[in-house]
Every structure is written in structure tokens, then in C-alpha cells.
Amino acid sequence: MKAIPTPFQLQTLEDIEIKLLLEAISLRYGYDFREYAVAPLRRSISAAMTAEDVTTISAYQDRLLHDASSMQRLLSTVGVSVTSMFRDADTWRCLRDEVIPVLRTYPSVRIWSVGCATGEEVYSLAIVLKEEGLYDRASIYATDMNEDTLAIARVGACPIERLRTYEHDYLLAGGQSSLPNYFTTAGRIGRLNRGLLSNVTWAQHNLVTDASFNTFHLIVCTNVLIYFRPTLQQRAHRLFYESLVRSGFLALGQRESLIFAPESSRYHQVHDGVSVFRKVR
Ligand SMILES: C[S@@+](CC[C@H](N)C(=O)[O-])C[C@H]1O[C@@H](n2cnc3c(N)ncnc32)[C@H](O)[C@@H]1O
After folding, report:
1. pTM for this prediction
2. 100 alpha carbon to ligand 1 midpoint, in Å?
3. What is the spatial distance between Cα 75 and Cα 71, in angstroms, rounded to a whole number?
4. Is the CB of 117 under 6 A from ligand 1?
5. What does the pLDDT look like over 112-145, one tens digit per residue?
6. At which of 19, 42, 74 does a domain end?
7. Distance CA 193, CA 196 (A)
């Protein structure tokens, strides 16, 4: 009679090596990727190995354990720091037309931009708040697990050619001026006007391991949860729910939803087809 394979036997050597690699990273650096979605995580590890010129996972583990700079490079690959200004124009339109008018009725507002990467989302937020007359009453907390991307974000710089490519989405999102008007140019680089960064606090925060640090009227977390498995999405959602004031708003990415949020029934969707939700209880 043929033996039934146990789950243990079903694991490939590569599965085992990746498990050990993630365990080693967690023990050495405290970054825990064990609940990240499998397919993108594998792609990131493979891309990082090619870039580091190592051919086996065990050799890569050795490199990571002994060379902190290789860990920092992996962080950017796993975190996928791709971003842009006014990404998902429908979301920004909804924030401008349906969320900000509510926030405007408050004496002051606290906003958390979670997984802000190199800052483009925060610059977009600052510009919309300015145009809607709310910037001076707003405090923006911009966080990411990756210190390197935060260091770039803090500078507020953006190549002029890239600004031009963002203009279309800015206008679709209801922009009232032109993006270059918010940047001072030096050569081919635009620097976001200082005033638009004065109400922003940048800080490292990891959704896997860190707790809530304030309460917020609006949390923007776009294109981060898609890289998490359901269990980790659940954790993040609990954190968001606890961190939102009653009647606060949560904006997710176009491909993200409340499907894994234990508190999904405690929100209502602000606009059909857009992942912006309001906490109702
Ligand atoms: C694809 S970018 C999204 C950037 C921006 N929110 C947007 O939509 O354009 C994902 C960001 O999430 C960050 N990230 C990934 N895992 C995280 C975690 N556990 N805690 C905090 N940030 C995380 C990454 O470092 C990266 O900057």
C-alpha cells in the first residue's frame, strides 16, 4: 500500500530554506516577513539574490546575517517601495469631495499615512489639504518600516520629469492648480515647498510588530495590505480600527478591501467602487 505523504514531506527543500531564512531575519533584525503573501515574497527574495549575486538561499542567509547593508537592500525589495503622487485618482477624488468636507468641520485633524514609502502619497495629501483650506489645522504622521525610504521622503524632492507624469492624475483627482506650482526647482529637481512639510512628522513604524501611537481622523494605507497574508491583514485592520476616532475614515488601495477585517461590519463604504470607509461604530 502506498504511504500517504505527511505535510512535512510535502515541503520542498526551497520551502524549508525560505522558512529558515525568514526565521533568521526575524531573530537577527526583528523584521518579521513570515506572514507576507508567499508569491511576491518569493519573487522579492529571488530578485534580491540576483542583485547580491548569490545562488543559494543558504548562502544568502549567511550574507544577510553578517552584512546589515544587505538586509537594508532586501527591505526595499520586499517592501516594494514603488509609489507615485495621486496614485488611484478615484481615491483622491473621494478624499477631496467626500472626506475632507467632513474633516473640515473639526477644529483640528490628525492623519496617519501608513507605508508612505518615499513620500509621494504624503506630498499629495499635503497639497489636497492645502487646496481645501485644511492644511494649517492638520497634523500628518507619515510612517514606514523602511528608514531608507523615509530619509528620501523627508527631503521632499522629486525629479521634474516625474512631476510631469503625475500631473494627469493630479487633475483627475480634482487638482486646482498645477503640480510644479508646489515645487521650487533647482536644475532638474523639484523641492516641495517647505510650508507643505511643516505639519508632517516622519517616523519608522512596522505594522507587523508595532502598536498604535495615537488616534486619527483619517488613516491612509494604500498598496501595503496586498503584500500581507490574511492573518497579517487582520492584525493591521485591528490596529487601524483601534487607532481611528469614532466616525473616522480609512482609505485603502484600489485592490484592497475590508475582507479580512474582523470589524468590517463596523464600517460603511463612502463611495461605491472606491476603498474608502467610515467607521460607524
Ligand atoms: C508599494 S509601497 C506603497 C506606497 C504608497 N502607500 C502608495 O500607495 O503609493 C509599500 C510600502 O509599504 C511599506 N511596508 C511594507 N511592509 C510594511 C510593514 N510591515 N510596516 C510598515 N510599512 C510596510 C514598504 O516599506 C513600502 O514603502
Report:
1. 0.94
2. 24
3. 6
4. yes
5. 999 999 999 999 999 999 999 999 999 999 999 9
6. 74
7. 6
